[in-house]
C-alpha cells in the first residue's frame, strides 16, 4: 500500500470483454477520511471502475491489475484474485456501495428494518437479532428518518424515493465500512431532497473516518463534497488533483471542455473554466481561505461545521445562506475573504 492511511489502492486496473478493452491502466488511491470524486462523460468508465473494485463486474468482463483494500483484509491481497466468498464478506463490511436507484438495491418483499438488520447479522457485527433490531432504529434515526421504529416495519414501496435512499445509505453504513462508493446516489431523487441526502452521505463517512469514492456527472456536487477529483475519459484517468486546482486550472483538454460545458461559475462570474463554483454567492479566488478549513457542506441546505477556529468563521453552525465547498468558504455578501 502506498501509505498508512491508504484504504484503497488501485494500480494498473484494466477491464474489458474478450474483444474490447474498456478500462485502461486505471491507477489511484484513497486515504481514510478522504472524499474523492470520479467524473467523466457517460460511458467513460466510472461505473466499471467502481464495480471492478467491488468485485461486481458482470459476466463476460475480466479485470487485470491490482486492487487492495487495507481494511479488514491483509493489504497484501489483490482483490482481483480473491474468491467470491471473501469478496461477499468484504462487501458491506470492508466496503459498500450506494447506487443511483434505491429501489433496485432494496428487496421489495422485505420490511426495510429487516433489510438493515440482515446486513449486520450476515457480517456478524451484532451479537443477536435483538441487538441488530435496536441498532436498526439507531441507524435509521442517524439518516434522519422520522419515526424510525415505525418506518422499520414498512416495505420499500411505502417510502418516498428520498426515504428509500436513506435506508440504502443506512444499510451501506451499517457495518462501518472503511470505503463507501457512491454511484450517482442523488441523481434519481427530487432536487429538494438531493442536498439533504448528500449531506447525510458526507456526515456518515465523516463520522466513520471512511474513505469515499463519489461518482457523479454534477461538478457542483464534486466541488461541494470532495477534496480530490479524478477525471475519466475513454476508460482512462486523464487528470487528477485537488478539486480547487483541477476546476480552476484544468490541464487536460477534456477536463477543460467538461468544465467549460458545466454550470460552474468562476470567480469573475464567467461560466465554465471556473475558479470555484458558486451555490449561490460570490467566490473568492482559490487559496483565499483559512488554512485547514474543513468546511464541506452547503449550510444553505444543512447544518454545516467549520472546524477552523476564529478569526472569521465562528466554530459551530454557520448562518443559513453561507455557502461552502471543498476547503472553500464564502459568505454570500463576499465578506470574510482573507487574502
Ligand atoms: N457488461 C458490459 N459489457 C460490455 N461493455 C460494457 C459492459 N458494461 C459497460 N460496458 C461499456 O464500458 C464503457 C464504460 O461503461 P461505464 O458504465 O463504466 O460508464 P460510466 O462512465 O459509468 O457511464 P454513465 O455515466 O453513463 O453511468 C461503456 O462504453 C459501456 O458501454
UniProtKB/TrEMBL annotation:
Record's bilayer topology term: Peripheral membrane protein
Gene3D superfamilies according to UniProt: P-loop containing nucleotide triphosphate hydrolases
Record keywords, A-Z: ATP-binding, Cell membrane, Membrane, Nucleotide-binding, Transport
Signal peptide: none
Matches recorded under Pfam families: ABC_tran, oligo_HPY
Location relative to the cell: Cell membrane
Listed GO biological process terms: peptide transport
Residues covered by the ABC transporter domain: 8-259
GO cellular component entries: plasma membrane
Domain of life per record: Bacteria
Primary residence: membrane
GO terms assigned for molecular function: ATP binding; ATP hydrolysis activity
NCBIfam families: oligo_HPY (TIGR01727)
Family: Belongs to the ABC transporter superfamily.
Annotated protein name in UniProt: Peptide/nickel transport system ATP-binding protein
Organism: Ornithinimicrobium humiphilum
Amino acid at each position: 500500500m502506498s501509505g498508512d492511511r491508504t484504504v484503497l489502492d488501485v494500480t494498473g486496473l484494466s477491464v474489458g470483454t474478450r474483444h474490447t478493452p474498456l478500462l485502461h491502466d486505471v491507477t489511484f488511491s484513497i486515504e481514510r477520511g478522504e472524499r474523492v470524486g470520479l467524473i467523466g462523460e457517460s460511458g467513460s468508465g466510472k461505473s466499471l471502475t467502481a464495480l471492478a473494485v467491488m468485485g461486481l463486474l458482470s459476466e463476460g468482463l475480466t479485470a487485470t491489475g491490482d486492487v487492495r483494500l487495507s481494511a479488514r483484509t491483509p493489504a497484501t491481497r489483490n482483490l482481483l484474485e480473491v474468491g467470491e466468498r471473501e469478496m461477499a464478506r468484504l462487501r458491506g463490511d470492508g466496503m459498500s456501495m450506494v447506487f443511483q436507484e434505491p429501489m433496485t438495491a432494496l428487496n421489495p418483499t422485505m420490511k426495510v428494518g429487516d433489510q438493515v438488520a440482515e446486513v449486520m447479522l450476515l457480517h456478524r457485527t451484532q451479537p443477536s437479532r435483538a441487538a441488530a433490531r435496536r441498532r436498526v432504529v439507531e441507524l435509521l434515526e442517524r439518516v434522519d428518518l422520522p419515526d424510525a421504529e415505525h418506518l422499520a416495519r414498512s416495505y420499500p414501496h411505502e417510502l418516498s424515493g428520498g426515504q428509500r435512499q436513506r435506508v440504502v445509505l443506512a444499510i451501506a453504513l451499517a457495518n462501518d465500512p472503511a470505503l463507501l462508493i457512491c454511484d450517482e446516489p442523488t441523481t434519481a431523487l427530487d432536487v429538494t431532497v438531493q442536498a439533504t441526502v448528500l449531506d447525510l452521505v458526507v456526515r456518515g463517512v465523516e463520522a466513520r473516518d471512511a474513505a469515499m469514492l463519489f461518482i457523479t456527472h454534477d461538478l457542483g456536487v464534486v466541488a461541494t463534497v470532495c477534496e480530490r477529483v479524478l477525471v475519466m475519459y475513454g476508460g482512462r484517468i486523464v487528470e487528477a488533483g485537488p478539486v480547487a486546482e483541477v476546476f480552476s486550472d484544468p490541464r487536460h483538454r477534456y477536463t477543460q471542455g467538461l468544465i467549460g460545458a458545466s454550470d460552474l461559475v468562476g470567480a469573475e462570474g464567467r461560466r465554465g473554466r471556473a475558479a470555484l463554483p458558486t451555490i449561490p454567492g460570490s467566490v473568492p479566488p482559490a487559496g483565499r481561505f483559512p488554512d485547514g478549513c474543513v468546511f464541506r457542506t452547503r449550510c444553505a441546505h444543512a447544518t454545516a461545521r467549520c472546524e477552523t477556529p476564529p478569526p472569521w468563521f465562528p466554530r459551530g453552525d454557520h448562518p443559513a445562506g453561507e455557502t461552502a465547498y471543498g476547503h472553500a468558504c464564502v459568505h454570500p455578501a463576499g465578506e470574510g475573504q482573507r487574502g
